[in-house]
């Protein structure tokens, strides 16, 4: 046999055979393996932790959905609103980017317009958490009389399906932000929610008591709320 034909045949076999016998190292579990029969609370917690770890490390593989047991409806995330979900940059652009003294009247007028855009990264996180089954609570320093405008603005910006919007009621007026927000988080904990995460642009959104398992501080170079 011609040497070149022999060499070509050898190379062809060398290429084809490994392809026939090799297997992908990526294994997609059969559907039935997505669920299991463990009943104990400890097992459930480990099972769910495993899922969360996989999601956070972007290692959830080809699974298309979360196992039904990866949540009992009590995992919660708390979002602040101003400069966390909604950006008031259009307002501050014409008010010195926070360098002017805060003017409640003109800010209220801006709030009533309900046109603040979403912070894109926050909207993305919000939607992902919502899809994962987290109950989303919106905890803001805005007052009850601003509920309607706030809801309209959240919908305008693309937010949907929050569990509860918590605003300052009459008895909350004058309470320091850290205390007010801690008290509201504590109410959620007393209702059985596990506050897994909290996002806010002020430290007073995150500190105090009934603190989330993980807290995420967004930057806000324009103003500070103690
Ligand atoms: Mg804020």
Q: What percentage of amino acids are in beta strands?
A: 5-15%
CATH architecture of the largest domain: 3-Layer(aba) Sandwich
Average the pLDDT over all residues and give the rounded result. Answer: 85
Highest CATH level, the class of the largest domain: Alpha Beta
Function: May function as somatic storage protein during early seedling development.
Protein name: Acid phosphatase 1
Signal peptide: 1-22
Organism: Quillaja saponaria
What can you tell me about this protein's structure?
The chain is built from seven helices and five strands; from the N terminus they run ααβαααβαβαββ. It has helices at residues 3-21, 41-56, 89-93, 104-113, 120-132, 147-157, 177-190, and strands at residues 75-79, 135-143, 164-168, 194-200, 214-217. It is 39% helix and 13% strand. Strand 2 (135-143), helix 6 and strand 3 form a beta-alpha-beta unit. The protein has 226 residues and is α/β, with parallel strands linked by helices. The termini are far apart. The radius of gyration is 26 Å and the shape is elongated. The chain has two domains: 1-70, no CATH class; 73-217, Rossmann fold (3-Layer(aba) Sandwich), CATH 3.40.50.1000. It has a five-stranded parallel beta sheet with strand order 3-2-1-4-5, with helices on both faces. Residues 31-38 have low confidence and may be disordered. The site of magnesium ion has 7 residues, from loops. Magnesium ion binds at residues 80, 82-84, 200-202. Keywords: Glycoprotein, Signal, Storage protein. This is Acid phosphatase 1. InterPro entries: Acid_phosphat_B-like, APS1/VSP, HAD-like_sf, HAD_sf.
């Amino acid at each position: 046999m011609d040497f070149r034909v022999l060499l070509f045949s050898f190379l062809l076999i060398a290429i084809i055979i490994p392809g026939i016998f090799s297997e992908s190292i990526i294994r997609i579990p059969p559907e039935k393996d997505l669920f299991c029969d463990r009943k104990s609370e400890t097992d459930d917690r480990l099972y769910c932790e495993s899922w969360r770890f996989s999601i956070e490390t972007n290692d959830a593989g080809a699974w298309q959905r979360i196992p039904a047991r990866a949540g009992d409806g009590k995992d919660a995330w708390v979002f602040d609103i101003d400069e966390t979900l909604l950006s008031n940059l259009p307002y501050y652009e014409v008010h010195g980017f926070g360098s002017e003294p805060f003017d409640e009247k003109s800010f209220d007028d801006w709030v009533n317009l309900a046109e603040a855009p979403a912070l894109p990264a926050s909207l993305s996180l919000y939607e992902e958490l919502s899809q994962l089954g987290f109950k989303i609570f919106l905890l803001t320093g805005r007052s009850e009389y601003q509920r309607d405008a706030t809801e309209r603005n959240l919908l305008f910006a693309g937010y949907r399906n929050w569990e509860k919007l918590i605003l300052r009621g009459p008895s909350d007026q004058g309470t320091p932000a850290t205390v007010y927000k801690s008290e509201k988080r504590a109410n959620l904990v007393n209702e059985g929610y596990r506050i897994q995460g909290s996002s806010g642009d002020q430290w007073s959104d995150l500190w105090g008591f009934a603190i989330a398992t993980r807290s995420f501080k967004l930057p806000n170079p324009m103003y500070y709320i103690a």
